[in-house]
């Protein structure tokens, strides 16, 4: 587990997370240029993305607790779910769940989303409709220039991203950097940088 960043979510004060809105200056040019805009995001039709900032750092990195991957790797969009197992009884998991949830609430408030317009924000927390299973966090494995920007480790055997199976337990370094507007809805995906498989 030495390759992980070991950044506990407890180091972050959610009130210190700020957001800066950027509009695309001219969509008809090849080199994209963005300009700041303080208009309420939900009312700004030109908004391209919202930069997440914590104490001048444009990325929020956090190391997850040991989590359960119930469905394995989804090859559609290269995502996986990390379950908040026993979050009702495990104080550390509960604290991590609240941290993720409160960041989403803070983002909605910044965007200008109320209960009436909640469908305009795509939460990355998935709940079981029947409330049988604990909720899970959808995380994306970044894939650029034909390769994953993710390192995966195990102490006992060699492993690759495509070896991620259902029911594996793992600890991950995950991060957010931007909220994107996509089809008139806002989305902030947690992306994976490192995976340690237990």
Brief digest:
With 198 residues, this protein is mainly beta. It has one helix at residues 91-111; strands at residues 17-24, 34-36, 47-54, 60-63, 67-69, 79-83, 121-122, 125-126, 136-140, 143-144, 147-148, 151-153, 168-176, 178-182, 185-187, 190-197.
Write up this protein:
It contains 1 helix and 16 strands. The mean pLDDT is 94. It has one helix at residues 91-111; strands at 17-24, 34-36, 47-54, 60-63, 67-69, 79-83, 121-122, 125-126, 136-140, 143-144, 147-148, 151-153, 168-176, 178-182, 185-187, 190-197. The chain is globular, with a radius of gyration of 18 Å. Strands 4, 5, 6, 8, 9, 12, 13 and 16 form an 8-stranded mixed β-sheet that branches. Strands 2-1-3-14-15-7 form a 6-stranded mixed β-sheet, covered by helices on one side. Strands 10-11 form a two-stranded antiparallel ribbon. The chain has 198 residues and is mainly beta.
List the uncertain runs.
none
Which strand-content bin applies to the residues?
A: 35-45%
How many strand segments? 16
The number of helical runs is 1
Q: How far apart are the termini?
A: 9 Å
Please tell me what the overall shape is: globular
Radius of gyration: 18 Å
Structural class per helix/strand content? mainly beta
Largest sheet: 8 strands, mixed
Mean pLDDT across all amino acids:
94
Q: Can you give the helix content as a percent range?
A: 10-25%
SSE string: EEEEEEHEEEEEEEEEE
């Amino acid at each position: 587990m030495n390759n992980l960043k070991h950044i506990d979510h407890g180091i972050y004060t959610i009130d210190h997370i700020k957001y800066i809105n950027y509009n695309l200056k001219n969509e008809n040019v090849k080199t994209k240029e963005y300009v700041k805009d303080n208009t309420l995001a939900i009312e700004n039709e030109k908004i391209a993305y919202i930069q997440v900032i914590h104490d001048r750092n444009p990325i929020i990195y956090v190391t997850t607790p040991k989590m359960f991957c119930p469905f394995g790797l989804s090859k559609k969009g290269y995502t996986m779910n990390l379950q908040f197992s026993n979050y009702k009884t495990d104080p550390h998991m509960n604290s991590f769940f609240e941290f993720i949830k409160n960041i989403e609430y803070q983002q909605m408030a910044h965007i200008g989303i109320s209960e009436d317009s909640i469908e305009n924000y795509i939460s990355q927390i998935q709940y079981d409709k029947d409330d049988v299973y604990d909720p899970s966090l959808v995380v994306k494995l970044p894939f650029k220039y034909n390769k994953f920007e993710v390192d995966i480790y195990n102490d006992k055997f060699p492993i690759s991203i495509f070896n991620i199976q259902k029911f594996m337990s793992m600890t991950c370094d995950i991060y957010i950097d931007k909220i994107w507007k996509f089809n008139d809805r806002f989305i902030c995906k947690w992306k994976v940088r490192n995976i340690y498989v237990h």
